[in-house]
């Protein structure tokens, strides 16, 4: 299984390098359209190779997707945390109840009752 992973990573590296080599031409990247940039006074622009723009878009999409899923699953994590805390509380209560029940008993009888 480890070798399959290495083969997959090698193929992915070959594809990414070939995409990068095929898209070396520079492109002008602007933060805002020209009219809005003049209105807000922010005229950032830069010349970057096209493959950097493509890879940055992929990375940005992945990060946005990860954050979106993390926010979406918040209710499930909160519910799991609540149930875990409730289970711990109930276990403590059960131990306390057993200790009160077995308070006057012989230690051997208390151990036998615990095993049931």
From TrEMBL:
Q: Which sequence ranges are marked TM in the entry? A: 48-71
* UniProt keywords, alphabetically: Cell membrane, Isomerase, Membrane, Transmembrane, Transmembrane helix
**What is the source species?**
Roseivivax isoporae LMG 25204
Q: Which domain of life is it from?
A: Bacteria
Q: Where is this region: Disordered?
A: 95-116
Name this protein carries in UniProt:
Phosphoribosylanthranilate isomerase
Please verify whether the record's keywords include Metal-binding: no
**InterPro entries tied to this protein:** LapA_dom
Q: What GO cellular component entries does it have?
A: plasma membrane
A molecular function GO annotation: isomerase activity
Occurrences of domain Lipopolysaccharide assembly protein A (ranges):
26-94
Annotated coiled-coil segments of the chain: none
Pfam annotation, one family: LapA_dom
Does the keyword field hold Transmembrane?
yes
